[in-house]
Design goal:
13 helices, six-stranded parallel β-sheet, 2 domains, single chain, 17% strand
């Protein structure tokens, strides 16, 4: 942001009147260092846990598009730089150091390890740079008692509950087809995300809780972490199909990439597969729904997350009250709602002509 930077001509200012004419000529915009010429440029440093995550890539693409639009609307240069942490917290902290050394004004962080947030925040605070975390929520103690530290995302338990509702709807409407064993018990497997991640823990818990609270008897056949990864999920699912085969009636997946991995394994298995549900509503998942392979998903609003982050960043850059720019709760949090997607409303989310 605007910082007090001395002109390249200031060092000549005391050398006497003989240099005044030369000073006037030298003190032109072309003389200024690059940093001074760009004092009105807003620099956003975006640190991702990995660019291989389909949903995170969607958020980043939306943010880059919105930045371009904002430059035109505001008549202001906005420089956005994206770095891939490659799922390594040490690498990401080194990238944060580079952003701060280069004078970036605001950090937007999709943190690798949510328990490492305090170290990252300390670095940013020492440079008086605000931090906006997104999608991977640090522990509350690292956010609630800090100045100019924020989180943008959705409540993981809500996403899990809506995923559970998708399966509950199917159990109520299509029970004869879903309860293959006819025993009145819903047998399922669970593809979990990264161990320790709040989305993994809460989506896993609440997806099943909705069913049991509704009086549905369930039996977990297997569960394991596939780290949000399609390939890992496919390998896990292939193994479970070997072990349990048609006993599996439902596949819960903590995200869409893993749900698509499960479908890859089911397709290779070659038999009528179980019902599969995911979370995120990525473009490939919506396409799989349109072909009837994926039963349902839950919208994690990539566009809304990007919009909230940019609005928050612009308010912070202008020294405005961020609560006037976004729906800020408890002084630090912007919560986006999830939305359940099944065959009844799929057309609303597909690209035009998608089905």
């Amino acid at each position: 942001m605007n910082r007090n930077i001395k002109s390249c001509c200031s060092r000549w200012a005391r050398r006497g009147p003989a240099l005044l004419l030369a000073l006037a000529l030298l003190c032109s915009p072309g003389c200024a260092p690059a940093r001074e010429q760009e004092t009105d440029t807003l620099r956003l440093g975006v640190a991702l846990y990995t660019q291989d995550d389909t949903f995170i890539s969607s958020v980043t693409q939306e943010l880059e598009r919105m930045v371009q639009e904002a430059e035109v609307e505001l008549g202001r240069k906005i420089n956005i730089s994206v770095m891939d942490g490659a799922n390594n917290q040490t690498t990401q902290l080194e990238q944060i150091d580079r952003f701060l050394d280069r004078g970036y004004d605001i950090l937007l962080v999709n943190i690798v390890d949510r328990t490492a947030a305090a170290v990252l925040i300390d670095k940013a605070e020492a440079s008086e740079v605000p931090v906006i975390f997104f999608n991977r929520q640090p522990v509350s103690e690292d956010i609630d008692y800090r100045e100019r530290v924020y989180y943008v995302g959705a409540r993981a338990e809500e996403g899990g509950a809506l995923q559970g509702e998708l399966v509950l709807d199917a159990w109520r409407d299509e029970r004869l087809g879903l309860d293959r064993s006819g025993d009145g018990v819903l047998q399922y497997v669970m593809l979990e995300g990264e161990p320790g991640h709040q989305d993994t823990l809460l989506r896993t818990e609440w997806s099943v809780k909705v069913l049991t609270d509704a009086g549905v008897e369930v039996e977990k056949l297997a569960s394991d972490s596939a780290n949000w990864n399609r390939g890992q999920a496919s390998a896990k699912m292939a193994q479970w199909l070997d072990w349990f085969g048609p006993e599996i009636e439902v596949v819960f997946s903590n995200n869409d990439d893993m749900a698509l991995g499960a479908l890859d394994a089911i397709r290779a298995w070659g038999n009528p597969g179980p019902l599969v549900v995911g979370v995120d509503a990525t473009a490939p998942a919506l396409e799989a729904m349109s072909t009837g392979e994926l039963y349902g998903t839950v919208l994690n609003d990539a566009r809304g997350i990007a919009r909230a982050m940019l609005d928050l960043a612009l308010a912070l850059a202008e020294g405005e009250d961020p609560a006037l720019a976004v729906d800020l709760q408890d002084g630090h949090y912007v919560w986006l709602p999830y939305q359940k997607i099944d065959w009844t409303n799929l057309d609303q989310f597909l690209p035009e002509g998608g089905r």
